[in-house]
Amino acid sequence: MTGMLSPQRRLLLVAGAAALTGCGTFVDRPQRPTLFDLGALPSSATPAAANGAPGTPLVLPDVEAAGALEGSNMLYRLAYADDHQLRAYALSRWSAPPPQLVRQRLRQQLGRERPVLSLDESAALAREGDQPLHLLRLELEEFTHVFDAPDRSRGVLRLRATLIANTRSGDVLVGQRAIVADGPAPTPDASGGVRALTSATDAAAADIGGWLQRVGRTR
Fold it and tell me: Domain for residue 38, yes or no?
């Protein structure tokens, strides 16, 4: 009869519907990115108070940055192909924007030699007495996993550091310094880039620490 389906056609339609249902069941869910940070300091790292080296208190405001570094993307650059193109790992992210991670790491590292304060903490200290303060402003210009070859890469960090002394007569520029640090990546992937950038951040902290000591001796 017209309009009626044959048994064979009904079987084909049922089988087709079951196949579509099965496909819907096994559709992959979007994969969540893996989150990374700069890890914990070695257990040998101790604060200034424990080292008996108080030093001049250092005020470390939020690290400034612009553009791609304001987000949590983990950036890399294929220097051997196009050094001017920034790319982002699809399934790897920083747990916080790089300026926050860098500030946290620098505060931990520099805090081994002297008290490192936030702006709020420095305001409270200024009200308590006449203890001199140095303010270190940092601008993060690059924080990238750079591939010099497909199997050879490094983490590159660039900072601009400005040191200001807080005096009774006002703020005085002590010095300014461009800091470039890098660290080798053990593997050519996001995880290797994280370790390379952690090493670069620690190298930058050592550079800044040495600079602060030299500036302190000349004042």
Answer: no
